[in-house]
Amino acid sequence: MTRSLGGAELATSIRNDASVAAAALAEIGVRPKLAVVQATDDESTAWYVRSIASAAKRTGILCDIVDLGAVASTEQIRSTLVELGHDPDVHGIILQTPLPDGTDLDALREAINPAKDVDGANPVSLGRLVARLPAFAPATAQAVIALLDHHGISPHGRTAAVVGRSTVVGSPVAHLLVQRNATVTVCHRHTTDLAAGTRDADILVVAVGIPGLITADHVADGAVVIDVGTTATADGQLLGDVDVAAVDGRAGALTPVPGGVGPVTTALLLNHTVDAAATQYAQTRSDSLLAGARSSA
Ligand code: NAD
């Protein structure tokens, strides 16, 4: 029997902590605010963004959805990100993908102010994460580690395989697992024998976006399988990358889709926003104290 590693309880607990911290900030006049920039008419993306906004509201965080429309240019999106980066009332910024065809995503990620980069998208954030310096980790990657911790599964000394190497999920998950002392294999679209890369892993993290990619052949007996994949179907279902029926009984534990990594990711985004608001408030206070000390010196 495969154990289900649900994310709802952990997500609630992270959101509760964020809510308490947001209330404390509100008492000193700081209202944490998240801006989500989107440029698509894809309905499943719009649904996801609305779900972040409603979770933010319930947590005491303001959330602006900045919808630039499905034909926005790289320059329009870039200048919006720069403007939000300078807006003292905005503490966190998320750039939602997909973006219009031909958009220069790398240039846009660099335009997110690192202090407000609550989804760890700017290469500065990723570099700091790899260098083990304080930074916001991409929320999904952090959610994978948080779920393992929550369910009492330690990566220390274990073998892990990560399928997918994107800069927002696969690569940062692999780094975080190495930082937790796992021995990690990374597989991707050019891996010639995927099962050979995954079938001995104690912990298997899959972040691809191909429903049913992972079958019993890819999974070691008793392995912990974290399914990050989310593919929306025409009839409104959300499918993970793991063939659940095929791995049932072979995997020791598996995250459900939906209800596994997703809710924890959203909760961490809110938590990062509150942290960013607190840090920016402290920075502003120290800047104004310094300016006051200089002017009276
Ligand atoms: P991406 O398209 O940027 O990256 C996909 C990765 O999969 C690439 O590294 C590619 O090399 C690899 N890949 C493609 N085909 C493969 C194959 N046949 N075998 C092995 N590897 C293969 O996607 P992403 O942004 O990293 O997202 C991955 C999945 O995670 C998507 O389904 C996305 O919707 C989902 N996602 C979920 C959350 C969440 O909160 N649950 C958050 C972000 C992304």
TrEMBL record:
Pfam families, per the entry: THF_DHG_CYH, THF_DHG_CYH_C
Record key words, sorted: Amino-acid biosynthesis, Histidine biosynthesis, Hydrolase, Methionine biosynthesis, Multifunctional enzyme, NADP, One-carbon metabolism, Oxidoreductase, Purine biosynthesis
Limits of the Tetrahydrofolate dehydrogenase/cyclohydrolase NAD(P)-binding domain: 138-280
Catalytic activity: (6R)-5,10-methylene-5,6,7,8-tetrahydrofolate + NADP(+) = (6R)-5,10-methenyltetrahydrofolate + NADPH; (6R)-5,10-methenyltetrahydrofolate + H2O = (6R)-10-formyltetrahydrofolate + H(+)
Binding residues for NADP(+): 164-166, 230
GO molecular function: methenyltetrahydrofolate cyclohydrolase activity; methylenetetrahydrofolate dehydrogenase (NADP+) activity
Assigned EC number: 1.5.1.5, 3.5.4.9
Pathway in which this enzyme or protein is active: One-carbon metabolism; tetrahydrofolate interconversion
PANTHER family per UniProt: C-1-TETRAHYDROFOLATE SYNTHASE, CYTOPLASMIC (PTHR48099:SF5), C-1-TETRAHYDROFOLATE SYNTHASE, CYTOPLASMIC-RELATED (PTHR48099)
Similarity annotation: Belongs to the tetrahydrofolate dehydrogenase/cyclohydrolase family.
Complexes and interactors: Homodimer.
Functional description taken from the UniProt entry: Catalyzes the oxidation of 5,10-methylenetetrahydrofolate to 5,10-methenyltetrahydrofolate and then the hydrolysis of 5,10-methenyltetrahydrofolate to 10-formyltetrahydrofolate.
Protein name: Bifunctional protein FolD
Species assigned in the record: Rhodococcus wratislaviensis NBRC 100605
